[in-house]
Amino acid sequence: MHRTTIDSGRPGNSTQGPSWWKSALQRLAGALFPTDLRLFARAICSGPQAVGAACPSSRRLADYMASQAVSVCRGYIVELGAGTGVVTASLLEHGIAPERLIVVEKSALLAAHLKGRFPDVTILEGDAADLASLLGWRAQRVSAVVSSLPLKSLPKSTVDQIGSALDAILPKGATFIQFTYSLRCRAIDWAQEVTCLHSRTIWRNVPPARVNVFAWGNG
Q: How would you classify residue 81: left for phi > 0, otherwise alpha for psi between -120 and 50, otherwise beta?
C-alpha cells in the first residue's frame, strides 16, 4: 500500500534553512526584551565585574538625574558608569551640549556601543578610579559628575580610590549626582566632605532607586 507523506512544517521535518521555531523565538525575544536589556545581559555575561547595576536605568530615573545636571552651565559634565546610554541620552535631550559631556564606561562592550550611539560625545573606556589620568587636561575643567556606579556594593578600597579620583578633579561646591538602590539620602563613606543637598526616590524603576544630589567639599 502506497503512503503519501505530507510535510506538516513541524520542527525536524525541514532540512534546509533555519527552523521556523528558532525564528519565532528570536522574534519573541525581540518583543519581550528591549535592545538595551539584551545588550546589558551580554555585558554582564562578558564581564560581570564591570557592570554593577541590577538592570538598565529607567527613563524616569535618567530624566530626573539629567534634570539635576542642567543647572551646571559651565565646564565639563562627566558621567560615570553609563551602561547602555539611557542617562547619556537624557542628558543630551535636556540640553547638555555633546562637547561638554564626557562618558566613562568600564565595560569594553558597553563602551563600544556608546561610541556608536553617541558619536559626538567623548566616550572613555576605563575605570573611574583612574579618572584623572583618563581625562588628562580636561580634568581641571570638570564642574559636575553624574554617577551610576554601584558605590554601595563595591569594596571599600575601591570606593576610596574613586573618592580620591573625584577629589582630584572636582572643585569645592561642585555638583555630584549619584543614584543608589538604598532609599536613604546619605553621603558615601569617604574621607572627603560631601553634603547631601536633596534627593528623590524614583519608584517607577526596577528596583526603585534614589537620586541623591551632593555638594562636593561643602562649597
A: left
- What is the DSSP-derived secondary structure letter of residue 139? G
| Predicted model pTM | 0.75
Per-residue pLDDT of the chain (219 residues; tens, 9 = 90+): 544 433 434 444 444 445 554 454 344 344 434 455 555 455 444 444 444 454 566 889 999 999 999 988 889 999 999 988 999 999 999 999 999 999 999 988 899 999 999 999 999 999 999 999 999 999 999 999 999 998 888 888 999 999 999 999 999 999 999 998 887 766 677 778 888 899 999 998 888 889 999 999 865
**Of 152, 169, 147, which Cα lies nearest the Cα of 69?**
147
Nearest to 132 by CA among 150, 145, 113: 145
Peptide bond into 171 cis (omega under 30): no
Alpha-carbon distance of 197 to 112, in angstroms, equals: 34
Task: Locate all alpha helices (DSSP H) within 58-140, ordered by sequence.
Answer: 59-67, 86-93, 108-117, 131-135
CA 54 and chain centroid, separation: 11
